[in-house]
Amino acid sequence: MPKKRHILIIGGGILGCSAAFALSQRTHCKVTLLEANTLAAATTSSAAALLTRARHKPVIADLVRETFTAMAQLNTLLDQPLPYKKVGSLHIACSRESSNQLDMMAMLAAEQQLPVHNLSMAEVRQKSPWLSPPDGARALFMPEDGFIDPYQLAMAYRQGAAACARQSGAELRILQNTRVEKITFEPASAHPACVTGVKLADGQLIDADIVIDAAGPWSTLLANAVGVDLAMAPVRSHYWITGKLSSVPPDSPMVILPDARAYARPEVGHLLFGLRDYQPVYMSPEQLPNELSGFCFGHDPEGWQALEDGYEDLAGFFPEIDRVPVEHYISGISSYTPDGSPLAGFLTDDKGKIKLEGFIALTGCSGGGIGMSGGLGRLAAELALDEPLFTDLKPLALNRFGSVDPLSDDFQRRCALARMAKRSG
Length: 425
Prior knowledge:
By secondary structure, this protein is α/β, with parallel strands linked by helices.
């Protein structure tokens, strides 16, 4: 029997668990997943987890489509179906710019063979009684969209990985509370530099043929130590949850409001809503703590300034915000790139030659990691095992921004501005 390729995954968030699931379906794999704390307890668990299918970038559409395929596979593998809430997404446009965006969404949905409907304002109010769009607004409804509990999806990937490993004969080991201190490598001499494994915080060395850096915002420093500059920065991502609202039925759709720089979805009779920051809020990877309990960016820690900045625009669609209490504020980290697309693959030069053999990045999802998780996990498995890729890797290439310094304030601010410019959910 040929020797199984040992693939080591750093990070037990949604991407690490998804990569383990995809790899465990391959017979000739030995997979070790290392999580510094507990699985999916860092950035994954704080995600709003909106799953929208129609995407402007073909590669993102491919990744999202694969996530839904993976979810269907998990529903077959596991005893209980995934808690996916297929409530649909409702897109509201008031300005010419957002109306053009709706036209583009409708065209993309048609191209991707997704159902899409134009709704009257009466139909909008019937589906979402809390919503009061201004006169002249347009509405587009996509019934296949929905949301999911991100922690439960990550755990499903983990359970699916274990089930697949039993069936395929792959070896799977998942170690929690196991912090990686650094990636080990042999520097370039006559051959390209090559990773050899990792060194843990307790000094233990683990050898590996492939190391997948899926450590979220902590990916940057791990990669930087082996000469890889990941073009991303930790940027604030946050949302609020109101008190109980009778105007928010449990099956009301997600709502995308580009003119208010906002999105919303039902949350067990409450309304969860997110706002884009009006000023860049970010942090250097060097300042991140080892775990995120009680973490804040040091600016507007309770979100009141951000809520005040977006209040007037949001109130134009959600008049009850004047009366309903805000019960929870959740602030997390999104690893943003300048173009809002993830970083995936090997580090290569301009001619496509790999500069560090055995190192694969899987990070920088810019707030979309839950929706792209299944596709990125599959892509990591194909890269690690030299299989044909199911989508075009070029838009996700690590070197697509040229030479960057992810530890510089100017670059981190550039990533935060990309977050501010986002208008979709």
